[in-house]
Amino acid sequence: MTSATLRHSVWILRGNPLTAVAAAGVALFVLVVIFGPWIVPYDPVVSNVSEALQPPSAVHLAGTDQLGRDVFSRLVIAARLDLAIAVSAVGISFVIGAVLGAFCGYAGGRLDRGVGRFVDVMMAFPLFVLAMAMVAALGNRIENIVIATAIINLPFYIRFARAEVNVRRNVGWVEAARACGESHFSVVLRFLLPNILPAMAVQISLNLGWAILNAAGLSFIGLGVKPPTPEWGIMVAEGARFISTGRWWLVAFPGLALMMAVLCFNLLGDGMRDILDPRMRT
Question: Which residues cross the membrane (predicted)?
Answer without folding.
Answer: 20-40, 83-106, 118-138, 144-160, 204-225, 248-269
